[in-house]
Sequence to fold (195 residues):
Amino acid sequence: MINDASARWDRRYQGVTPRDRRAAEVLEQNAHLLPRQGDALDLAAGVAANAFVLARLGLTVEAWDQSATATEIVKAHARETGLRVKACQRDVVTLPPEPCSFDVVVVSAFLDRALCGSIVRALRPGGLLFYQTYCRTRVTQSGPSNPAFLLADGELLELFSALVPVVYREEACLGDPFRGFRDRAMLVARQPESD
Fold:
């Protein structure tokens, strides 16, 4: 059964391909931190631009999204390119990732605070989270208008305080508002190694 949100996302992805989307800056700017191999998840992936970057870098990747349209687009692109990306239509909120199942998790332009604990637990020891999404403090009106889907100042660090921060960036309205990384926060954080 297709819910209203799935149908809305299906319409949004109609005719879009991974070539039409850029990977998240958090991944582009920090790809050098990725392991050379391992299992990665692009969570709430859309057409999975992040997943294809991860696959090109040698990881085995799953791309999960609730949109059937996006999932089919990702499957077709994976066949066309020969990249190892397994697309799965999945509501990540009701079916979050299993504990200790991924070496890398990437999330961009998605926020469900109740899911953050599951994301932390999904990382294997030493695993990395690459997260980027929109903030309430911003210089433009890009991103969602609903404040429930916008981060408060410094909130991304708080949501993932169980992880060790490696990279964090949130520029808010400081300095020249027309330069830099605006309207969003990014975090790369590591799951502590087991004792």
